[in-house]
Write a structure and sequence with these properties.
The protein has helices spanning 27-40, 44-58, 74-82, 97-108, 148-158, 176-192, 197-207, 216-226; strands spanning 64-68, 89-94, 116-120, 131-137, 159-172, 214-215, 230-237, 240-246. By secondary structure, the chain is of the alpha/beta class. The protein binds ligand GEK.
Length: 247
C-alpha cells in the first residue's frame, strides 16, 4: 500500500457563523486536518513529496532526521520512504496531544526499517543533535517571531556538516501591494476548493493572532545570519514557499 495520510472528514469548521476564537490544533482539527491542509495550501502534496526526496538525498548514515511540527506525520512518512542510508532514525515532534496520538496510530499502520520516534513536545525546547535533516513544513510560522532565530540557531548547531534544513512557510509579500496580490490569489485558490467567503474570512480571523508570516527576504536573511551558506527556494505558489538551507 502506498503510504499517505488518508483524507478523513471534510473541513467545515468555519462554515457556520460563530464567535471566532484563536485557532488551536485540537481534536476537531485533527479529524479534518488532511482535507484542511490540502484545500488550503497550494502545492502541499508536491512539497511533502519533494521534502521526502530531499531527505533521501541529504540523509547521512548513523544520523537523526527531525520532523518538527509533524501533525499527522505526512513529511515523516515521505522522508521514511526515501531514506536508504544505514542506522537513521526519524524524530517527529508536535505540541498538540491529539495530533501526536493520531500520528502514532497512523505510523503504526505502515511497516518500515527506519524507526520513528513520535514525541509530544515544543519546538522551543527540543534538543537537535546528530542531525542530517531537519524538516519544518509550515511550523516556524507558529513560533513567535522574536523566537524564530533562536530556534534556527539551535537547528544549525545540531546539524552535521552537509546537513539540510527543509523549511516551508506561508510568506508575506515584500510590501502591501505585493502582499495583497498574493493574498487575493490564495483566497481564490480556497474558493476554487469549495471554501465559502464566510469560511475564508473566519479562518483568517482565527489564525491572525497565532500565525505571523515573515517576508521571504526576512527568512533568507535570517538563515544566512544563523550560518547557512547555501539556501535555495525550490517551490513557490502564491504566498506558500519551500526552501532548503544547507550547512
Ligand atoms: C505537515 N508539518 O502535514 N512546537 C511543536 N509543534 C508545534 C508548535 C510548537 N511550538 N507550534 C505549532 N506546532 C505538517 C503540517 S501544521 C501547519 C504542520 C498548518 C504544530 C501544530 O500543533 C501543528 O500540528 C503543526 O505545528 C502545524 O506536513 O496547520 O498550517
Amino acid at each position: 500500500m502506498y503510504e499517505s495520510i488518508k483524507v478523513t472528514g471534510k473541513d467545515s469548521i468555519y462554515a457556520t457563523e460563530q464567535r471566532v476564537k484563536d485557532f488551536t490544533f485540537d481534536e476537531n482539527v485533527v479529524e479534518v486536518f488532511p482535507d484542511m491542509i490540502q484545500r488550503s495550501v497550494p502545492g502541499y502534496a508536491t512539497m511533502v513529496n519533494t521534502m521526502g526526496k530531499l531527505a533521501g538525498q541529504f540523509a547521512q548514515s548513523n544520523s537523526n532526521l527531525y520532523d518538527l511540527g509533524c501533525s499527522l506525520g505526512a513529511v515523516t512518512l515521505s522522508m521514511r520512504r526515501n531514506i536508504d542510508k544505514e542506522n537513521c532514525q526519524i524524530i517527529a515532534i508536535d505540541n498538540s496531544a491529539p495530533m501526536v496520538e493520531r500520528c502514532q496510530l497512523h505510523l503504526k499502520g505502515f511497516k518500515s526499517d527506519v524507526p520513528v520516534n513520535v514525541q509530544l513536545g515544543d519546538i522551543n525546547d527540543v534538543n537537535i543533535e546528530n542531525a542530517s535533516v531537519v524538516a519544518m513544513n509550515f511550523t516556524l510560522q507558529f513560533i513567535p517571531q522574536e523566537q524564530r532565530k533562536v530556534v534556527l540557531e539551535k537547528i544549525y548547531a545540531g546539524l552535521k556538516p552537509g546537513g539540510a534544513l527543509l523549511l516551508s512557510e506561508k510568506i508575506k509579500g515584500e510590501n502591501d501591494v505585493r502582499d495583497n496580490l498574493l493574498i487575493d490569489l490564495h483566497h481564490d485558490f480556497k474558493r476554487q476548493n469549495g471554501y465559502s467567503e464566510l469560511e475564508i474570512s473566519q479562518k483568517r480571523t482565527a489564525i491572525e493572532n497565532i500565525m505571523r508570516t515573515d517576508a521571504l527576504s526576512t527568512h533568507l536573511n535570517r538563515l544566512s545570519d544563523v550560518g547557512f551558506s547555501n539556501t535555495q527556494v525550490w517551490y513557490q505558489c502564491f504566498n506558500f514557499c519551500s526552501m532548503i538551507a544547507i550547512k
